[in-house]
Amino acid sequence: MGRTRWAIAGGVLALLLVVGALFLWRGDGGSETTGVPLPAPVGRSDGDPFAARSDGAVPAPPGSPAEAATAFLDAEVAGDVEASFPHLSADDRADHVDAAGWFEDHADIWTPTSYRLIDVRDDGDGAATATAAVELQPQIDQFAGLVPARATLTLPLVQEDGGWRVAFSDGSYAPEYPDEAGAVDAVRAWAEARTRCETAAQWDADLLDSPYLADSLCGADGELRLGRPDTLDVLDDAGAYLDDFGTRAADWARVVPVEGPVALDAVAAPLGDSWVVIGTSPRGTSGSRP
To answer: Collapsing DSSP states into helix, strand and coil, what is residue 225?
Structure first.
């Protein structure tokens, strides 16, 4: 939000009104960019929105947008937040406060391991856009959501202080997911293991929605027949998945119908180059079924 200096002359009532307005402003999600938005600041670890901020000037090395994007991404891949923080735009630095805040705000859900700069476009008026193919540390959990193994990054840059800086909070990435045919293979391996009362191809958290359906496969006899993968729309109630992962789960989750000794819909998620089962639901009645 930048540094804010409060005047004494407004009285306690004015101060409370300003503080209330500030917190309402911080809660506004703002406009969306194309693709998945990059991590936004979540505030300092001490929870104090009025914590002291660094007033020191952050030098920006001269050079082109391509050089700025390269320096920033090199530092991010190296895990060097002290080096990547100065390459952020003035607005981003104000939001994250310092390198420690920058690390806290983004490291859990944006951890690139490599990148390849594809294109840098001069947008005019002191703005540019870099595009890069990035590899990330894939993960899936209810806090970070789903982080793909690969994505195409769109990174805006702005001209500041005689150099170029990265407007990270205005960027986005387009995830790349493995072929959905792998979801069927994963569900088959998972269902066969569950009939043996074993676990395979399943994520490391509790199954969502109706785990009793998975439990009922233990010791069940009979042929397992799987249908083709579909989206969450085929479920009568996808709330368990959308509540935990947000509306973007509709983009990446795949529902694979299972017929046999137990009828259920297995919901799979891409994890890296593979798929894992994250939940089981009663058979839906809409959409395409086997």
So the answer is: strand
Burial class (CB in 10 A: 0-12, 13-18, 19+), 4: exposed
The burial of 144, by beta-carbon neighbours within 10 Å (0-12 exposed, 13-18 middle, 19 or more buried), is given as middle
Give pLDDT tens digits for 40-52. 654 433 434 333 3
Closest CA to 280 of 267, 289, 270, 290: 267
In the Cβ-directed half-sphere of 165, how many Cα atoms lie within 13 Å? 20
pTM equals 0.76
Whole domain around residue 199: which residue ranges? 181-281
Q: What residues pair up with 152 in beta bridges, in sequence order? A: 133, 174
Residue 134: count other Cβ atoms within 10 Å of its Cβ: 23
Residues 190 and 86 in one domain: no
Same domain, yes or no: 167 and 70 = yes
- The total of other beta-carbon atoms located within 10 Å of residue 200's CB is 14
| 51 C-beta neighbours (distance < 10 Å), count | 13
Strands 208-209 and 274-281, by their bridges, are parallel
